[in-house]
């Protein structure tokens, strides 16, 4: 009986130690020298010395092609704003962590490409399915080409993978940014009307001051030349030629006012969209969900 109890306790301790002390790095089979390099890389990364961390990880990857180390290596690239495409191979698309890092790299560079999810992937890597939710949001944001295509309900539809606090934060962010866009938006038709009344004023109204001043003086010179020729020789060929140029310049000025307002509106929409990406799909979030679960 005592022997049986001792064996049971031994087996329990062994299983408990495997569960507690095992980590994704166990599959890498690192030797003492490589573990030292990994510790150095971790220290450098936390100290925001990402190039030194990359060098330490390169030493390991020269002899060990371990996925956990490669993911850590990819994070050092992202922290240095480097393109991680050269680090990835075709088989990496089966791993959601590599797909997310690839998608994030494209999102940060305003790219339109994203990793295709293998059809056989029907399970979540972790029980909370958090990574799968992040991947769907990344792909959604990458494919957005216009602010009008961005709907807050698309984010809220993924509420099962977001905390209530995060969802509330998104709603507040969305409301404040929508209000900001409305405040900074300019009416293209009003800008065109201003430019029709006084050349260049539509552009100035649309916060394009330099363009507005240039348009004003160009139109002033051309209209003045047209008027001078009209007074001197109203039937001359030169008068008709300059009048044509004046008409084109004036029309272009009106179109320019309309376009300036649209550019101003698109700029603020783009800035808000970029802020949305950084606020909810940022590198610190990916570090928490991927990197810090490995190390």
From TrEMBL:
Keyword check for Transmembrane: yes
Membrane-spanning ranges: 213-232, 238-261
Signal peptide: 1-22
Keywords, comma-separated and alphabetical: Membrane, Signal, Transmembrane, Transmembrane helix
Protein name: Tetratricopeptide repeat protein
